[in-house]
Write a structure and sequence with these properties.
The structure holds 3 protein chains of 3 kinds. Chain A is built from 8 helices and 13 strands. By secondary structure, chain A is an alpha/beta fold. Chain A folds into 2 domains: about 1-120, Rossmann fold (3-Layer(aba) Sandwich), CATH 3.40.50; about 125-220, Arc Repressor Mutant, subunit A (Orthogonal Bundle), CATH 1.10.10.10. Helices cover about 40% and strands about 25% of the residues of chain A. Chain A is elongated, with a radius of gyration of 19 Å. In chain A, the strands form 4 sheets. A 5-stranded parallel sheet of chain A has the order 2-1-3-6-7, with helices on both faces. Chain A has helices at about 10-20, 35-40, 60-70, 85-90, 105-120, 150-165, 170-180, 190-200, and strands spanning about 1-5, 25-30, 45-50, 55, 55-60, 75-80, 95-100, 125-130, 130-135, 140-145, 145-150, 205-210, 215-220. Chain B folds into 3 domains: about 25-160, no CATH class; about 205-310; about 310-455, Heat Shock Protein 90 (2-Layer Sandwich), CATH 3.30.565.10. Chain B has 8 helices and 14 strands. In chain B, the strands form 4 sheets. Chain B has a 5-stranded antiparallel sheet. In chain B, strands 9-11-12-14-13 form a 5-stranded mixed sheet. A two-stranded antiparallel ribbon of chain B has the order 1-2. Chain C starts with 16 loop residues before the first strand and ends with a helix. Chain C is globular, with a radius of gyration of 20 Å. The longest helix of chain C is centred in the C-terminal third of the chain and has 16 residues, at about 260-275. In chain C, strands 1, 2, 3, 4, 5, 6, 7, 8, 9, 10 and 11 form an 11-stranded mixed sheet that branches. In chain C, helix 4 (about 140-150) runs parallel beside helix 7. Classes of the chains: A alpha/beta, B alpha+beta, C alpha/beta. Chains in contact: A-B, B-C. Chains B and C meet through strand 2, helix 2, strand 3 and strand 4 of B and helix 11 of C.
Chain lengths: ~220, ~450, ~325
């Protein structure tokens, strides 16, 4: 998917971009409103991430501008401000959602997915591999004629696997993506979700193979 | 309403008292002036009659055959009749010698042919007013100065003065009474705009710091001007401190976010278990501190707002629905289903932002403590009171601590490694109390915690 | 002193009459100084004593002028003063000899300073001997009288009587008031002078001589006195001059020096009470106070006019020159 990140803090912007690109997304970065408007006019984005405080104005200015031009691209605001004082005005101005800094990347991902889902119902970037079609936004897996609704954790594991087929993902890596840092869960929980995904893939050309002490890999026949 | 205000006198009383005091002084002044004036006029009246009497006697004098003859008319004395029967005395002198009349009546010898002179004296034990006039009589071989004095007691005059005095006193008292009534009326009229201003300021909403726009009397303009200036300063200072807090939060949270993002990214790259543990601890510490900072800020905001609720009509179901939608991505992450149980709109009066924040804290808690792939129910009820219950399928509250949990920074003994500040329930409880309700914590019979926020 | 006209000061108190009413042993004796004959006052005093059993009354009678002088000399010797000479009474009160009685209801014109109270209205009259006027019309006015006297001077020579104004206080009062009212008085006086008028000190003597026929006409006699002589009504006739009757009001006051202010005050109340009640006129011989009209001569300071030494001297001179020819 294609994101526009509007954030004046380079360190944070770099971190976000790195993370998103590692997830297989395309990210453009603008560090001020002026640039952001230019980017948004030229490029077609699936979603815009907007920081509120920017050097040449308030992020809300961009929101106003964006909505005035009737752009339906969902906007998620990244804010460091109090939800009590800011929440209403942000949503009133047309933001689809907001995330309070610092945020859990998984949460940002979840909110993006929810926003996209609310916006169009389906993703424009359905990944098709062999006879399996994966819609990360709807969280659905189409094997042959049957569509399977994935649970969140299944979806997120599968997303990782399908974006880098033939790559082995260690248990820790999957765990770190799946669970927030306060979840008191052992890495073995991963096996449960892998097991579920394997069940969903039965009858398709795709399968998940276990590589002892290395991790898991999505294979197709 | 006015506790803590030092009272020093009353404007109304001061105004009333000065008006009444002024009226009393005026009434007294009027009494004395009118009385003095009446005395003068009455005395003038008596003097005129006495003078006329003296002159009628003097006019009747003539010299015939070396004798002084004063054949004065009956009217000389009859004109002196008064309704209080004042006593009359007179004396006729030829030069210094008493010719006729009362001996010992004090004599004034006015200048000859220069009209009457008047005076007061006491005769036969009674204070009298007397008039005296002189005339030169010239006969064949006689040249004498004839002096006539007529005196009269002043019973009638005093009676008249007492009557006038009494009437003036009654008039003065009436005037005074009228002024007292007018004083009260005038005072309340004058104080009225002040009361109106008080009402208009007192009725303002908590956020209303706009200047007083309705017209006020000129004398109150400086006060209202100062009040407006004070409110403008207050608004400026409030918005400044809000801006400051927001700015501070921004300044703290943005670098935290950077660190967190980097830490997360790093975590994905390192393989060594101890390094991973360190990164995780770091992320947890960041989460904990940012969450605590956020809740402390919220708590401060709520404490401020609880005194001045922004009361509006709110549909609780809509509010909870909206909230559920906002929180669904988080629920989804944990594969928890948020389920809303409501029959129809439930209308309450309250501060929407505070309520949302309170319920959000409750749902946040539930999402944290509920097991993965479970259901968190949000129940909106109307009876007995409008309430919102958040029911999860987790471990429930530790039984012995259930009453202590809403205290500040209190955390359940079973909270384990879950990140929290201990302020969530406190915030919810304070919001509930600010709305005249309360927070009830109990454990569901089938397991799981149930928090009921009631109005 | 103003009243230097009192040419005959009373050396010893030679009373015309003195009577004692009530018990001799009573502790309180009210001393009344009066110029009114005892017979007029006896019924009043007796009725008063009925209501005041512990009081006795000493009633002393003298002429009006003497009364004035006696009282001024020793005001402490009397409790109540009664006189028909309004001017003298007035002057005594004006000079402060009278006690104010606050609680007495009386017409304003009939009292002065709540001290002097008038209690009878008595006109000065012409009294004639019926015999002298037999066959001729009786005069009804002063003018008629002048005409009658002038028509028959022989009948009236030496047979006309009037007060000697020099000695009678009441006579002087009537004379001055007549003179004030009309010039007729002086013409009448001149006629009297030409007829060799007889001068009297008192009404009583004049009436006596009229009854006996010694005089045929008496001028300015108190009608009450003449009518009081019931035995003589066939000899005399009382005529009220029609054009301007001179009316006197008998008056009383309480002395400031009285030892019995309460009793004296009660007496004045009793007296005015009786005299105000016309229904009692039959029982009490004095004529009542005429409350129907305000009198021409009221109690006011003008009464002192003719008491003035100069005025009196002038009046007496004029009177003497008219009457003594």
């Amino acid at each position: 998917m294609k994101f526009l990140l509007i954030e004046d803090n380079y360190e944070l912007a770099n971190a976000i971009c790195a993370r998103m690109r590692s997830d297989g997304h395309v990210v453009d970065h603008a560090d001020k409103i002026f640039d952001a408007i230019e980017y948004s006019q030229i490029g077609e984005y699936d979603l815009i991430l907007l920081d509120v405080m920017l050097p040449d104005g308030d992020g809300r200015e961009f929101l106003k501008h964006h909505r005035a031009r009737n752009r339906s691209t969902p906007v998620i605001v990244l804010t460091a401000r109090s939800q009590v004082s800011d929440r209403i005005s942000l949503l009133d101005l047309g933001a689809d959602d907001y995330v309070t800094k610092p945020f859990d990347h998984a949460e940002l991902e979840a909110r993006c997915r929810a926003a996209l889902r609310r916006n169009s119902g389906t993703s424009q970037s359905i990944t098709v591999l062999a006879d399996v079609a994966f819609d990360p936004v709807a969280g659905s897996l189409k094997v042959g004629d049957s569509t399977i609704k994935l649970r969140n954790k299944e979806l997120r594991i599968f997303e990782l696997l399908i974006n880098a087929p033939q790559q082995i993902f260690s248990k820790q890596k999957l765990f770190d993506r799946l669970f927030s840092y306060d979840d008191d869960v052992s890495e073995n929980a991963i096996e449960v979700y892998i097991g579920r995904l394997r069940k969903h893939l039965v009858g398709s050309q795709l399968s998940i193979s276990t590589h002892r002490s290395l991790g898991y890999r999505l294979d197709h026949d | 309403m006015i506790e803590g205000v030092k009272i020093s006198g009353s404007l109304r009383n001061r105004l009333t008292v000065s008006l009444i005091g002024g009226a009393a002084v005026l009434a007294l002044l009027m009494y004395f002036i009118v009385r003095a004036y009446a005395t003068q006029i009455a005395q003038q009246g008596q003097d005129n009659i006495l003078g006329a009497s003296v002159n009628s006697i003097l006019d009747a004098a003539n010299v015939s055959e070396g004798f002084i003859d004063v054949d004065f008319p009956y009217a000389s004395f009859s004109m002196l009749g008064t309704d209080t029967d004042d006593r009359v005395f007179y004396a006729i002198y030829q030069d210094d010698e008493l010719l006729s009349g009362y001996d010992g009546l004090a004599q004034i010898f006015p200048e000859v042919d220069k009209g009457s002179a008047y005076g007061n004296t006491t005769f036969k034990g009674a204070p009298v007013r007397l008039a005296s006039a002189s005339r030169m009589l010239v006969g064949a071989d006689l040249r004498v100065q004839l002096t006539v004095t007529v005196a009269q007691t002043q019973d009638s005059l005093l009676g008249a003065l007492n009557r006038i005095g009494r009437n003036v006193a009654i008039f003065g008292a009436g005037f005074f009474l009228l002024v007292v009534i007018l004083a009260f009326w005038a005072t309340s009229t004058a104080i009225g705009p002040l009361a109106q201003l008080t009402t208009s300021v007192a009725r303002r909403g908590p956020q209303d710091l706009s200047p007083v726009a309705s017209p006020v009397p000129r004398e109150m303009a400086p006060l209202v001007f100062s009040l407006n200036k004070l409110m403008a300063r207050l608004e400026y200072s409030l918005s400044r401190s809000e801006d400051f807090i927001a700015e501070a939060a921004h300044r703290v949270r943005t670098p935290l976010a950077t660190v967190r993002s980097h830490a997360e990214a790093t975590l994905l790259r390192v393989d060594k278990e101890e390094n991973r543990q360190a990164m995780r601890s770091m992320i947890r510490a960041i989460d904990e501190s940012s969450r605590a900072a956020g809740q402390l800020l919220d708590h401060a905001m709520i404490t401020f707002r609880a005194d001045n609720l922004d009361q509006k009509n709110i549909d609780l179901v809509e509010l909870v629905q909206d909230l559920a939608m906002r929180l669904s991505p988080i629920a989804e992450m944990r594969d928890i289903e948020l389920q809303l149980d409501a029959l129809g709109p439930v209308s309450v009066i309250g501060d929407a932002i505070l309520l949302q924040n309170a319920i959000r804290n409750l749902v946040d808690n539930a999402l944290k403590y509920a097991p993965s792939e479970s259901i968190v129910r949000l129940v909106v009820a109307t009876t007995p009171k409008p309430s919102i219950s958040v029911v999860d399928e987790g471990a429930g509250f530790p039984v012995g601590e259930i009453n202590l949990l809403p205290d500040r920074f209190a955390r359940g003994s079973n909270s384990g490694g879950i990140i929290g500040s201990g302020l969530g329930l406190t915030i919810a409880q304070e919001v509930a109390e600010a709305h005249g309700g309360g927070l009830t914590l109990n454990n569901h019979s089938r397991g799981g915690a149930c928090v009921t926020f009631s109005f | 002193m103003i009243l230097t006209f009192l040419v005959q000061p009373v050396l010893a108190e030679e009373w015309e009459d003195q009577q004692f009413f009530g018990s001799a042993t009573s502790q309180k004796t009210l001393r009344i100084l009066s110029n009114t004959d005892t017979r007029f006052f006896a019924p009043i005093i007796e009725s008063f004593l009925k209501s005041q059993p512990s009081v006795s009354v000493k009633y002393l009678v003298t002429g009006s002028a003497e009364l004035y002088d006696i009282f001024r000399t020793s005001p402490e010797d009397f409790d109540v003063v009664i006189s028909s000479a309004m001017d003298l009474q007035f002057k005594l009160v004006n000079d402060g000899y009278a006690l104010a009685l606050g609680d007495l209801e009386h017409p304003d014109w009939a009292q002065w300073r709540e001290s002097l109270f008038a209690f009878s209205t008595e006109p000065a009259t012409i009294v004639i001997n019926r015999e002298a006027f037999e066959g001729v019309p009786t005069p009804s006015s002063r003018q008629d009288l002048i005409k009658a006297l002038r028509q028959r001077p022989e009948t009236f020579q030496g047979r006309v009587g009037t007060y000697d104004v020099r000695h009678s206080g009441l006579g002087y009062f009537f004379a001055t008031q007549d003179a004030r009212a009309s010039e007729t008085y002086w013409r009448l006086t001149e006629v009297f002078g030409s007829l060799g008028v007889r001068l009297y000190c008192c009404s009583g003597d004049m009436i006596d001589d009229l009854v006996s026929g010694k005089i045929a006409v008496a001028y300015n006699v108190l009608g009450s006195y003449a009518l009081g002589r019931e035995d003589a009504q066939s000899q005399i006739k009382v005529i009220l001059p029609s054009n301007f009757p001179t009316k006197m009001m008998r008056s009383a006051f309480v002395s400031t020096n009285t030892r019995l202010p309460d009793v004296a005050g009660t007496f004045i109340k009793h007296l005015t009470g009786i005299q105000a009640d016309i229904s009692k006129a039959a029982t009490f011989p004095l004529p009542p106070l005429d409350r129907t009209v305000e009198p021409a001569i009221s109690l006011d300071p003008a009464l002192m006019t003719y008491l003035d030494r100069l005025k009196r001297r002038t009046f007496i001179q004029e009177w003497e020159s008219a009457i003594i020819q």
